[in-house]
Amino acid sequence: MFEPEHPRLSITRQCALVSLSHSSYYELVKGEPAENLELMRRIDAQFLETPWYGSRQMTRHLRRQGQEVNRRRGRRLMLRIGLQAVYQRPKTTVPHPEHKIWPYLLRDMVIDRPNQVWCADITYIPMRRGFLYLVAVMDWATRRVLAWRLSNTMDVEFCLEAVEEAMARHGRPEIFNTDQGSQFTSPRFTGLLTAAGIRVSMDGRGRWRDNVFIERLWRSLKYECVYLHAFEFGSEARAGIGQWIEYYNADRPHSPLGGRTPAEAHQGAPVGIRLAA
Questions:
Q1: What is this structure's pTM?
Q2: Which CATH number describes the domain made up of 110-274?
Q3: Domain span(s) for CATH 3.30.420.10 in the chain
């Protein structure tokens, strides 16, 4: 992803171009073996098709494809890229005392106008020689991607940057919905929202359908862009993903939006989405 011997761009400058901290570079270059990166790509692609797969079922799937992998390794790689099956689990994990879990506010709500509800999520972006994480902020009613960031770590910083950019460019939503990932339950993240007068909403644990529209975005992005191009460098990933998101926002009509693009819908008329219980 990086070129340490580049004649004009230092590592610091290369990190800045792909929105990575300089210190993160040294963790990134350690990376995973090529064999593990291929397994992670396969896991990610299969998870889009069967998001209920836990480590046991995913390991079985990989073995059927001829991959020599045990469950422990499959579980570790799923955790490495932030994947968790959608079924409910017993509450055996004690939450961090500073990480409040906020209630889900969207049940039975009619969402019919821009900036009524925004949502955010993180996904894994496989590369030829590594991987990155992508966070996106989306307007729920119009499906418009308002801001996004790439990072090589699952910390809160790149999520904060994406939300700050979205608010600077598009104002503020009434409600902001996320899953219960530690980045989004962080007091820094929820504090940014509440300080701006935004109500915080969080999906029920394991309920990917509570944030279904951004899950559909990830599926389209990966099959139409990421898997086709197999980016080698972070700069390539940033440019390619940016071009696809611009196309998605400005040129891709959606049937639920009356044939309008997300950008067109975000500029105007009511949409009308009711969320079931």
A1: 0.70
A2: 3.30.420.10
A3: 110-274
